[in-house]
Please model this.
Amino acid sequence: MGNNHPPGEKPRECISSLPERPGEKTRAKKTKAEENNRDYACLKDELARNLGFNFFEEAEIEALLGEIEAFGEMSRKVAALCLQLSNTSSNLVERTLGHIRRARASLPEEELGAWLTRAFDLLDSSGLQQAVSFISKSDEADLERFKNKNPGAVKLESISARLELYLKGISGMDFRIRASGQIIENPCYTDSSAIYLPERLDVFCGARENLLLYRLMAAHKWAQAAEGTLAPAFESPSPTEGQPPAMDAAKEASDPLERFFSAFADRDFALDLYNILESIRLDSFLKKEAPGLFEKAKSLRLQLLEGRSVPDGLPQKEKDAFIEGLFELYLAGGAEKAPYKVSTDGELSQKEIWRKARGHKCAGESALALFDLCRMAERVFPHERYTPANLLFIGRIRPDEVAREAFEKQLALQRKFEGTVTKIIEMPDMFPQPRGTGKKTRAPFRPAKPGKTYLLIRGKLLELEDDLLEKALKNALPGGGPVPGGVLIDGAAAGGRHVYRLSDFPFEDEGDKTYDEASGQTGGKTKKTFKYDEWDYRRGGYRKGWCTLYEQDVHAGHGPFVEQTLKRYGGYVTALRNKFELLRSEPRLLRRQMDGDDIDMDAMVEALADMKAGLFPSGEDLFVRYERKERNIAALFLLDMSGSTKGWVNQAEKESVVLMCEALQALGDRYAIYGFSGMTRGRCDFYRIKSFDEVFGTAVKKRIAGIEPKDYTRMGPAIRHANSILAKTGAKTRLLIVLSDGKPEDYDAYKGDYGVEDTRKALIEARERGLHPFCITIDKEARSYLPHMYGAANYILIDRVRKLPGRIPEIYRRLTA
Amino acid sequence: MAMSKHLKVQEFIAIKEKPYYMPMGKEIELFEAAYHNMIPVLLKGPTGCGKTRFMLHMAWKLGRPMVTVSCHDDLTASDLVGRYLVKGGETLWVDGPLSRAVKAGGICYLDEIVEARKDTTVVIHPLADDRRILPVEKRGETLAAPPEFMLTISYNPGYQSVLKELKQSTRQRFMALDFKYPPDELEIEIIRHESGADAELAKKLVMFAGKTRNLKDRGLTEGASTRLLVHAARLINSGIEPAKAFEAAISFSLTDDTEMLETLSEILDSIL
Ligand SMILES: Nc1ncnc2c1ncn2[C@@H]1O[C@H](COP(=O)(O)OP(=O)(O)OP(=O)(O)O)[C@@H](O)[C@H]1O
Ligand SMILES: [Mg+2]
Model:
């Protein structure tokens, strides 16, 4: 550790780097204290009494009171604070006064007041230890930071996107970063999908260190999620005496962590201890996966350790001291720095615990060790209840949040399953009966295979075709699940029943009847009606003429949106225009032309040689000509105008359209812009913003301003309609660029796999027609279904909406270069 | 002038020394089987993953001379097949690399075939199906390829222009080998062999490469290739400070985007 310098200055050394505030030190005004204030007198009396109990000499007490007096207007506050501290330990009073004196030297009066208030707040909210540690940070750098003027403070908001990218790179996993919402002391945790971090970090005075701390926090949570901390698996059963509290069945199933911890008498103690044990174990994971980060974190950890030291005698409770000692040992990486010697006869030696925890191979081992340690702790610190400490970057473990996330994931799976199975059991029997008698047998009898699991429900045997379904089902059924009465059985026990498959069933939309074609036709006369087939993946076939699509103009918007956008992007627009202009006029050397700017030497030589060889020259194509290459490209932009784009996405789509128009005007490619939304198959709305034949004029500009979020996202019919518009252009290269913000979804059954599959099919159709579909998805999460859905199309994921307008012309340029 | 230009592009080489190649799977066996059955081969895969090296190795292994043509959009059919030249008042027919490979029973490797113009690409069609012939129109003759002749093309299916795609009628003439970046242990081995780097350094390089590959489609068009890792390792071996070498050889060549570069340097920071 010795030769490894911290990445920046230590917090304590910041003094030198900060300018001194002129005159500050001499400014202390000696306002006369209000001596006849009775409250104040009482405070002083009590304080004197407490000090007396602690064998302070009369003279000493006098001196201390005199010092308090010297704080002038602040005297009352100071006295009150000292009194509170003296209730615990009189020794603190003296030291605290020293700190306050120093603080006064660098803080103006009103800020000193705020500073004292903060100390009180901490005392109330986080206990003595935190308050004293706060007060003891009284050198100038700390105080500067307190004044919120720390230039090195880092806001989560400003780095979360980068942090997500960093995590994606370093871990390969898709974590979201969220603010944990607790600005001050309570910091960070993960629910296994998202990582929650403080909104702001100003622990250090350098931005680099604070950023590093953010990275350390995030990486630590990644380690927890990746290494099973949140789902410890161990052999021996939970040591619960009584049953865990009754919970909602499905919820309980996804809630093992909560159950695990509720088994401990002192739950907070177990949580923090487990967190530390795991953190000790995870060090080797971090060291392996991110050695550089780990190395740099070492010195960061030592600095944090230093900032943590509080005066002797704290914390008061031995149990708290035990945890603190272990945590500090962890911070020091096991080095002999552990400040708290706990007087136990070696049973709970932190050094020993640390050593063992390092050797743990999995979370289960830590969990088992936790049982032993907690049992011992009950014996060694009887009747003590642990007060949770602030464990800095290792944060807390939040079983409730883990459970919530797991529950939500589970729920999503179940919903998907619910929808399909309910349909099946409500289906009238139209398939062969096992001992089919009178009924028509349209499909051949399909027997169950032994060794395979089936769902038996209301006498029907259902094959589990989908992995995901099977998982949902297996988890769901024991707790009652969404299909009461269903059981999983082996094929051997199926008793000659016919096996149904979800794909056997004609699939009906629920919303069908509510919207028939007539209802969509209430709009103006400008609407043109089209019918499109839709792909039903369960049937493996199209539903003929299933969707009715209405093509119409977007209502003209008010306001100079286009002009404003162009202004906003000022210099960028010019650069963009130039760039595209260049692309257009980039001269291309055409070889072997009938006439041209210059002689084609290669062709000439070849022709001469051919002639000499007795060949008849192939032609007079002996010239080269510089020419603009004819860009025979037609591009159709299809915008998602569903309700979910409301806000930034819509704004970004509109801005992108403006910039694209500018770029394409310069380039001269033919282009059209349409939007889509709608509700149910009976009303698929297709909005014209600019057709291929229209010019980028006032009408189009007004329509761009009028683009706004509407209803749902039925992507299939919109893509099909765009396909046929593009096909009609007759251009050599036809490009379909779809901008959306996520999953296709409609009011009716156009959801989940059905929507994904239909969209996928529509894109495949585009491909088959010789178009080039390209999808741009604006989404923070790289959802797992995207590669499948976009299978036939190239796609790109843009995680920061605001980046879209800047990126899209570049994407277009690369696509057509 | 024109002559030197056209002749310099391709070198026809008989490979004497064994080019180092670390197999990822059964590609060597597949390639040999294709060779013996006279099936042309298409190599797919991201840049710098060992396609060219593989070809050199196979040419050596099969004991055939190899000619490589890097395709570009000015490549004409004559460039491949051959042309008449004038030399000292005499005309002289000069075979193009494809004809030479056919005549010599060698291996012709057309690198980055998508870059070639479509009308050039079709020249290889009759060679790549079971006719195995190369019509040389100017001489009014047709070359029949001997069994030893083999046609190989390469193609990088990554992020690219829709204007440059391999036509189905072309691609469906070939057996395809899909190249990926090697698994960690093998890639470490390759770097060590190619640069003489120690295990520790090679491991770090592979680790960093893995993380950049995680960012593919999240801001990076492609992750770091094996080639870049070898470059970085060599720089470091010549005494360049690792952080600088990683940056210059890898990060900077991956992207120009400042935000992405920052993320890359953060990741690098977490590894070194
Ligand atoms: N399997 C391998 N065995 C040995 N060396 C390899 C292997 N894979 C990659 N390399 C190393 O990577 C370098 C780049 O490989 P190569 O030039 O063959 O890439 P490529 O796939 O042809 O790339 P491009 O598509 O850009 O032409 C090689 O010079 C070699 O050092
Ligand atoms: Mg190559």
